[in-house]
Amino acid sequence: MDQSSQSLSSTAAPAALAASGTAQASHAEAWPDAVIAQGNPWQPAISAGIVMALIFALAVLGLSRLKKVPGLLQNLWEFTYEWVDDIGLQVIGPEGPSLMPYFFSAFVFILLSNLLGLIPYLMSPTARTDTTVALALCTFFLTHILGLRRKGFAYISHFFHILDASKESSLLSKGITFVLQWALLPAIEIIGELARPLSLAMRLFGNIFAKEILLTVLAALILKYFEAGGTGWLLMVMPLALRPGILVLGVLVSVIQAAVFVGLSMMYIGGALAGHEGHEEGEAQAHGAPDHGVQHLKHAEA
Question: Could you list the residue range(s) of the whole structural domain that residue 53 is in?
Fold first, then answer.
């Protein structure tokens, strides 16, 4: 009986520890589960739907109250549009306004999506790769569709005219340049083009996800110290003091990341419309005229 009771107690102890550990883990994860639709595969779509409804409501309110002397909401819409339009003119040139429907829509959607996570029980759709990859692919396909529509086959051929083997004098240099022109450099250019949507998606996702994690950790610490009582209430002062600063930082990150995404999209699309920088610059110098589009792109990159 003693041996059996000891064996039962020895097996029961690990089971009790495992059960308590599971309970503690589920309790520690209770705050993230409080986010609306957390764990639901459709959660990014639900959050994006909230953002779209908010944009629609703000647009209806703004259009219904148009005045010669604009109010706060009308001023906000006009300032945002003019700011994005000014960046488009600087980066792309005169063709920037024709692409404003995409740039302005993307900026407003990304900005409000980033800010949504600052509201309790809500999560930024841009804190998930589902949303950021979709946005990056929109820029990627629009870039190459516009480039093909503008330049036709010449848009694809510019990948193979970074160097010109026919201008080389010796046979050896012709052979080396031929391999570079038709194999190595085009492969590098294509890899670079494919890396653009990846960098767009991961940059936006990483910054917004980090903001969500910081806010989640601070909220979890506040709840943990509050439940502990006693000295825990004293320790709760630190995360409470840090949270307003993180919220302000979250607003700044949200605005900056929306501007960075749209600015890079403008550079990519502007580059596709202008063609290869070196090729276009060479043509401009040959005709004795400056290439303003290339100058805008270089100024934006600097």
Answer: 27-157+197-301
Do the domain assignments include residue 179? no
Query: Residues 179-197: pLDDT tens digits?
Result: 666 667 777 788 888 999 9
d(CA 286, CA 282): 6
- Which among 295, 254, 250 is positioned nearest to 271, based on CA atoms? 295
Query: Is residue 285 domain-resident?
Result: yes
Is residue 175 scored above 70 in pLDDT? no
In the structure encoding, which two tokens stand for residue 15, read together?
């089971």
Whole-angstrom distance, CA of residue 165 vs CA of residue 27: 67
* Residue 232 in domain: yes
Which amino acid does the sequence have at 64? S
237 exposure class (CB count in 10 Å sphere: 0-12, 13-18, 19+): exposed
- Evaluate if residue 263 carries a pLDDT over 90: yes
User: CA 254, CA 77: separation in Å to the nearest integer?
Assistant: 17
Q: What would the pLDDT profile of 204-246 be if each residue is shown by its tens digit?
A: 999 999 988 888 888 888 888 888 877 778 888 888 888 888 8
**Does some domain include residue 246?**
yes
First to last CA, the chain: 82
